[in-house]
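Most newcomers find our protein records easier to grasp once they have seen one. To make this concrete, we reproduce a full record directly below:

===
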Amino acid sequence: MPDLTVSALEGAATSVSERAIRDLESRLSGDLLTAGDDGYDEARSIWNGMIDRRPALIARCRTGADIAAALNFAREHGLLVAVRGGGHNIAGNAVCDGGLMISLDALKRVDVDPEARTARVEPGASLADFDAAVQEHGLATPVGVNSTTGVAGLTLGGGFGWLSRRYGMTIDNLIAADVVLPSGRIVRASADEEPDLFWAIRGGGGNFGVVSAFHFRLHPVGPEILSGLIVHPGDRASDFLRFYRDFAPTLPDETAVWVVLRKAPPLPFLPEEWHGRDVVVVAAFHGGDMREGERILEPLREWGDPIADVIGPHPYAGWQQAFDPLLTPGARNYWKSHDFTELSDAFLDTLVGAAGRLPTAECEVFLAQVGGEMGRVAADATAYPHRHARYIMNVHTRWQDQAQDDECIAWARDLFQASEPHAAGTVYVNFMPTDESDAVERAYGDHYPRLSELKRRYDPDNLLRMNQNIQPAPAG
């Protein structure tokens, strides 16, 4: 292997000797890949097809010691670093051009202690890996709604899903984490050990270190829950959303109802004549007693004249994968997001108008109902601060043809800007695209100064900057 020209931390190119590269390779129990090696293109590929970057080196780590060796190498040589967990983040920060990519995709182990109701989860595990392991024991913890998402990125940004109204966010169920600091030191972060670091990683993203293992609290869930979809014609969107605005606040914590505005996908339970037409998709979940859930959801199911209603008992792990076919990797994706405390008439009109102008059949806008236990946690308990949110909107723009980039991105930005006056003024950091890096302070609000001070303590040189970056506070 010859000397390599690589991207330096501050943007210039630098050279790394063959000897140094061989030394790193000898320290890794995993593989060190360069362009042309078997597995290189697969390792650098991530979920968002818009991102096509070529690292000079990819360290496929298998242990915490591997992660430490890779970080030490990057720090000693001043290299640009990216860290890949599940590779699902919309901004594409998991991969860099010309630098060192630390890949955690081989670290997928999930160890469950059913008696203690805890799990140790490695950072390359997906939500599907996690759910499958814990559901063997009838247990779960709140995670996201697309099973190919990585546990690491989801957790570090906050994490919410169907169970969050009952059991809080993913970070609210994090007991501890093993963290490899940018210095190469490995520490345990918990309420009792490195408590400042523990506070920071619960929502502060990958700014402070690389987590080599997450330790979660689990709850009895399933294995069957009440869930499913109701689909209404798109021309009923305005009326339905006003019904939903009144109905959603009446729901107990065990229940969550989300709304998606999109074109009807070719689902087998939808009549063929509806495929590709504007629809309102209502996704309902109840994690408690099923008979009680049926009573709670009865007004929702009686409203209007739906095209389809497929609510019923489903395996929890299966429901967690229900939306995977609409979110397969490789498509071009761009997101915009707002938090909401209420759904005003003006906002709902804006939403319906934009949904009538979807640029492709894969685009959608969803409203996720949150609150409940997620909103009862003190705002200063974690780095994630937005406990006031009752709904989170994701403008999910998705397409296949690069020629449509401008059209699709413009549609998402237009809806984002038009809905901003009606929103809470905050945003979920995991839904931010690359062009919102200037909004990181908005994502953290009053917590940003503390996070910046902790960034200076744990990563003063900002080695970990391929993320929604928190700048280290100035020294002194």
About this structure: The domain at 224-433 is CATH 3.40.462.20 (Vanillyl-alcohol Oxidase; Chain A, domain 3). The chain has a mean pLDDT of 96. The chain is about 25% helix and 25% strand. The longest strand covers residues 224-233.
